[in-house]
Design brief:
It is built from 10 helices and 10 strands. Helix content is 34%, strand content 26%. The relative contact order is 0.17. The strands form 2 sheets. It has a 6-stranded mixed β-sheet with strand order 6-7-8-3-9-10, with helices on both faces. The protein has a 4-stranded antiparallel β-sheet with strand order 2-1-4-5, with helices on one face.
C-alpha cells in the first residue's frame, strides 16, 4: 500500500522478518506496517506466530541462545536491532502488556512511577504525583484506586490489575503499546472495561493487540492481520477481512473450520 500525504505517519515497519529457534521455524518473511494512532489486531490459531512477532518487536528473544532473526524492524525509520540501540531504552518506547496481569508487589503508585523514575522521565514529588494520576485516569482506574494509592497492586481485582499494568505501560510515554491477549484471563465485565480503555487510547497511541476473540477484534481494531504457521497470510481493514477475506485459510479460520 502506497503512503500518501493524507495518511498518518508510519511508526513501525516490519520488513521480511523470519525467526527460528534452532531447526524450528517460528516466523516466515513477515512484512507489515503500523501507523501512528492505529490499532492493529493479530489473529490466528494457537501457535501461529503472533506472540513470537510481538516479542521480536520488543526484543524479548535477545537472551534466547537458539533464536535467530532475519529481516528488519524499523521504529520511526531506525532499525531496532542496530548495534547502537540500547534494548532497555527501546523497550521504554514499547509499552508491554501480557495476557496475565503482572503488577509489581508494590503500591499502586509505585507500579506506575517505576518506569518514569527509572528512566528519569519525570521528577519525583508533585510532577510524579500528577503523572501517576494522569496514567491512572487514562487507564480508567483513577476513580477506583485514587484514594488508595498505597494499596499493593497485587491486592486489586484481576481486571483492576490489568488496567494497572496498562497504566504502568503508559508511564514511560510509549510510542507503541504491545498487548498479548490483554483480556485472555479476564471475566466479561473486566474485558468490557479493558476494551473501553483501548477504544479511548485509539488515535493517541499506536497499538498491536493479539486476540482470539473475533468480536473484540472487530470492536477495537482498525486493521486485522491473520497469521498461520508463522506466516502473515492476510492483513487489511477490519470489516473487509471479516466480511470478505481474500485468503482461503483466513476465511476457513473465521468460519470456525479450525482454530
Amino acid at each position: 500500500m502506497t503512503q500518501t500525504d493524507a495518511d498518518p505517519p508510519i511508526r513501525l515497519r516490519v520488513e521480511g522478518v523470519s525467526l527460528a529457534f534452532g531447526d524450528r521455524q517460528a516466523l516466515r518473511d513477515v512484512t507489515f506496517s503500523l501507523a501512528m494512532g492505529e490499532c492493529l489486531a493479530f489473529i490466528g490459531p494457537s501457535g501461529c506466530g503472533t506472540s513470537s512477532m510481538l516479542k521480536c518487536i520488543n526484543r524479548m528473544h535477545d537472551a534466547t541462545p537458539t533464536a535467530r532473526m532475519t529481516g528488519r524492524i524499523l521504529l520511526d525509520g531506525h532499525d531496532i536491532n542496530a548495534a547502537d540501540i540500547d534494548p532497555p531504552l527501546l523497550r521504554r518506547r514499547l509499552g508491554w502488556v501480557a495476557q496475565h496481569p503482572d503488577p509489581f508487589a508494590w503500591s499502586v503508585f509505585d507500579n506506575v512511577a517505576y518506569g518514569p523514575r527509572l528512566h528519569g522521565l519525570v521528577e519525583d514529588g508533585a510532577p510524579m504525583a500528577a503523572h501517576v494520576r494522569d496514567c491512572l485516569i487514562r487507564a480508567h482506574l483513577w476513580d477506583e484506586v485514587g484514594d488508595r494509592l498505597d494499596c499493593p497492586g497485587v491486592e486489586l481485582s484481576l481486571g483492576q490489575q490489568q488496567r494497572l499494568c496498562i497504566a504502568r505501560a503508559l508511564g514511560t510515554f510509549p510510542d507503541i503499546l504491545l498487548m498479548d491477549e490483554p483480556c485472555g484471563s479476564l471475566d466479561p465485565i473486566a474485558t468490557r472495561a479493558i476494551e473501553g480503555l483501548l477504544m479511548t487510547l485509539k488515535g493517541q497511541t499506536a497499538m498491536i493487540v493479539i486476540t482470539h476473540n473475533f468480536g473484540q477484534a472487530r470492536r477495537i481494531a482498525d486493521r486485522v492481520a491473520f497469521f498461520h504457521t508463522g506466516t502473515l497470510r492476510e492483513i487489511g481493514p477490519t470489516e473487509r477481512v471479516f466480511t470478505a477475506p481474500r485468503d482461503p485459510l483466513c476465511a476457513a479460520f473465521l468460519r470456525g473450520v479450525f482454530g
